Amino acid sequence: MxxxxxxxxxxxxxxxxxxxxxxALLATAAPATAAGAPGPDAPAVPLRVATYNIHAGAxxxxxxxxxxxxxxxxDLRADVIGLQEVDVHxxxxxxxxxxxxxxAEKLDMRVFFAPIYDLDPAxxxxxxxxxxxxxxxxxxxxxxxxxxxxxLSTQTPDPVPVPAPGFAEVVVGVRGARVHVYTTHxxxxxxxxxxxxxxADMLGVLAADRGPKILVGxxxxxxxxxxxxxxxxxxxxxxxxxxxxxxxxxxxxRIDLVTVSPDIRVTGARTVAxxxxxxxxxxxxxxxxxxxx
Length: 293
What we know:
The chain has helices at residues 18-35, 66-76, 99-107, 193-207, and strands at 9-10, 45-53, 80-88, 110-119, 129-137, 141-151, 162-174, 177-185, 213-218, 236-237, 256-260, 265-271, 282-288. The radius of gyration is 18 Å and the shape is globular. Helix 2 crosses helix 3.
């Protein structure tokens, strides 16, 4: 993994600091290492992944209902899900909820939260206000990192593009395979220049990693957009015929994407109709190689 800003992994059982979790995971992995890595003829393993912009827990009706969000995620039956627009004690719109932890508990999954913004508490003695992306996983999280990419802040007047966190990477252990899963939320503005810089930054992160790679997220651009073109030199669009994702009620754009490295086989993918957010989720069934990690 390329060096970057670290953020704690938040497993549901039990809650541990990142360093303690890493030590435990290494200890757990030792017998497998001693037994030897899978050979070149080891069969690929199935993995269902999804991406979902949860709109801070508010549906297309603008009503905050995190139970509804959790139900929509549960219905995907995905092993790993990249989430965008996740509030952690952010504000009244989400009842100052730690959405990353709450969703992990509701779904009995591990979670890694990567803040884009990390602001002072709203009041004395309160929690820090954070907003960003997250990854939920049913599989063990072996490592996690919050990378910086170019961003144009929405929290400061007259912003200029600068490196900022919020590009999440986790390494999950999937039955002998080590899979890099990244989730992103690209700039929403009409000017594509910041998105183009973000694509270049993300590809730089991916290039530093070996093994199967899955990049999901809200790209705020359709797959055919010129600023996304460099992605398709390294990755494949898993759901080119999956249907629109935004807005949720009557989608007219496909801006939420699941993309995979060439060594991963896609066996099925679709957009899922739900109005638990203003975006629709995308789910993909994959076969991931166990070698080359």
